[in-house]
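Hey, quick one: can you model this chain's 3D structure?
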Amino acid sequence: MSGACQDRRSRWQEIQKGLQFIQSTLPFPGSQEQYEVFIKDLVWNLFGEGNDVFKEGEWTKSIEMYTEALSIADYADSEEICVPTGLLEKLYANRAAAYLNVGLYDQALEDCEKALHLNEGNYKALYRKAKSLKEMGRHQEAYETVAKCSLAVPQDPSVTQLTQDLAKILGLKIRKAYVRSKVCVFQTLITLTLLQAYILSSFFLIQLNNKESPMGMAVGMPEVKGLPAAVDLAKNPLAETHEFKQACSICYVKTGPGVLDYTLHTEEHKCKKDALLGRIKHSPDKTWKLIRPRPTKTQYVGPYYICKEVAVGKECLYPGHCTFAYCQEEIDVWTLERKGFISRELLFDPFGPNSNVRLTVPKILQEHHGIFMFLCGVCFDHKPRIISKTNKDDPSLCSHPVTKHDFEDHKCLVHILKENTVRYSKIRPLSPQCQLDLCRHEVRYGCVREDDCFYAHSLIELKVWMMQHELGITHESIVQEAKKFWNATASLQGVQQLSSAQRRFGPPNLKMMFVCGQCWRNGQLSEADKNKKYCSAKARHTWAKDRRVVLVSSHERKKWTTVRPLPTKKPIPSQFEICMHVTAGKKCQYIGNCTFAHSVEERDLWTYMKENNIPDMDQLYEQWLQSQKPGWGEETSSNSIRENGKQIHMPTDYAEEVAGNHCWLCGKNCNSEKQWQQHITSEKHKDRVFNSEDDQNCWQYRFPTGTFKVCERFLKGTCTEDDFCKLAHGDQELKEWMERREFLLMKLAKAKKDHLIAPNDNDFGKYSFLLKDIK
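Sure thing. Here's the predicted structure for all 775 residues.
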């Protein structure tokens, strides 16, 4: 073991011993002077450990070390022990750097301010403050800060680059510094004074030229025609610490049985570039690691960990389905992806000269299934949201049932995705102020600035902006291109279906039909209407999968008989038998759960479904409908098709005229005020307000109990309640509880602003502790 490793191991042991001691109530076995040295050494050790793990790229761990050191410094102050100001200054400045790397810009800015309060000349804190302000969209403040930093370290390349980036955004002229051959102290001072005067005058002119901005918006951004839409902001946040490369199965070849046993070949070939590789820049391991797509079919919201089999050099037990990471590079990318701070498409600098990324409308729609179309912007921005397109009787107006808005003047481009629910994503017009990056507030709890925000509020909006920036395409052209794409796709699908059309479907001895279940219970035989939206009876019942039944008739009996769904009991028997109760002429006592057939016709249809691999009545209906006429499947009847097993819908499927409100959280349309009130007061909806599927946050500790206080017994090591304890188990858990409370309060405020919570509704179940005061 090397000396450095040995020293670090010894330091870590000292940290563990020190923390264990100060968490106890034991008296210190020494003098007050020795106790002060002990406390200060502990803080220095934590500072050193934080620096080492930071260099290794473990930023979260470094934040923990710096935070622990600062907490002990606060504790020391209560014990009348003064930790050196210089050390506190470094702790705040270094923790700010770690916060920057994980995308927590608010916390980074707060730490920079604390470091500058201790030493206003700390140029590292100034630089990191400027970076934080830039990422938060406060470009003028960032420029003012980096100008001070530039005066302190004029030759630092990072400071120079940041200054030029901000100057470009603000529309200022970029100039290089004048370097003199002979340095005169007096003249240097004059030069610095003039430079400072120039900077201040520039700020003064910017202030005069700018109009007053809404509260919370970035100021100091005059409209400059021809200014690129902040291309420099599209850089990936891991650029300083990671390298990324695209590859394919030809150049990235598996060389062993392990999940990491791959080798990258650099021979020239036509690379598909369908795989993402990454590696940490300063790591001794220079091999390229495969970074798989982030697992999304899981409700897990905690931190990512490396698969325990892979960590010890064994083979993964679930290759292809493992939701654990295989390497640190995967953890770093997945963590930022889930928080919404990074997009895989931005890891390759889409604006670079060698980039092969060229976004088009078909490419976007192939990845993000759905359609682009125009909706009434006034209705869409209404609180709560109302979905309305053009009026059928007068296309110049919207289809709002009461207020008919001028559609052409107020239309907005919307991407509409219909899966289990309908999801609408507004695409705002691209302007010079737009930043080609995701809004970190929107992906967490909803951006309060809404349309005034310069950042993209969805990945689809970001990609459309990038496409518009590259191609200059208008919203009207995007809608037309989308229609052409789906028309071409539907035509191709129709050709493919011709070969299998008009074939005999079902058992040869049976006739089959699908009828409305409500009508059938009343003795009526009602099939679907032409559009497959309602049944053909006067009552016009909704033609939904849970309201239709299948009827069969044999050549022998010539009587229509209902058939129940195929039994789901596993394994399915090799052959179906008739129920003995039915055979005896009696009524089956287990009619709801009986897995035996209740008629010969039911047995024959079940056998046919099993032999043809038809698992349920929905697929039976689709295949039967296809056999009646080409392209008549339930989905294709409304101009939708399937691609790679995924359901794709056409423009006519979307944005039906809605008389009531639309809940963007749940994707539900309500056709009356009563139905809307029932929906927003339902437990499922209120739980969705606080814990949506798109929640990008990960929490390390227990769910808050509402009692925001540290358990004294836990500190003494005598708490026996474990997870059932109502108090926080340590300062870190308490801190997370406070942060989590603030986060959930923001989500609640956003929901109330959008009228998704009834004004007098205070019952939020396990989240009701939010309304309590913190003691």
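One thing worth noting: The longest strand covers residues 411-418.
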